[in-house]
Amino acid sequence: MPAGDGAGSAGSPRVGIVCGSRSDFPVMEKAVALLAELGVASELRVMSAHRTPELATRYAETAAQRGIEILIAGAGGAAHLAGVLASKTLLPIIGVPIPTQVAGGLDSLLSTVQMPRGVPVATVAIGGAENAALLAAQIMALHDDALRDRLAAWRRRMTAAILADESNAEPLPG
Ligand code: RP5
Hints:
single chain
């Protein structure tokens, strides 16, 4: 990924990142890292729609008053975490379907994305924690000009890194 621009991510968390299990950390820590690169403070918590439903609902109910602006929820299998959080808050929720052994994450994808009308979850690709972080940052950038500038710089660095790849050294005709 492109290197950051040195923006700090200290301070109160603006994004709550929630996993159904510690086994989801290898995927979801990518969202933490990318938000830090963009200078956005986040917190990473473990809670489950099925194993700790009271904790999950209480977290969603109190997130806004704690200054959280957006929630990112990653879960695998019968992945109801993002939907349960969405039922308890008006904060935007981004769902990350975690890859699984049995169905490659298609189980997680369908159980995250197929929300009933009235309770949306914006679902990214299977394992798409970095896109979840970028989408969260883009939403926050609607009212944060400095963050919008950092996002624009991040995208420029991504493009430049691809153009600088030696496999693109051969000029195209015209
Ligand atoms: C889900 O069950 C979690 O999000 C995880 O992806 C999956 C398996 O959890 P563990 O059995 O590894 O704790 O709730």
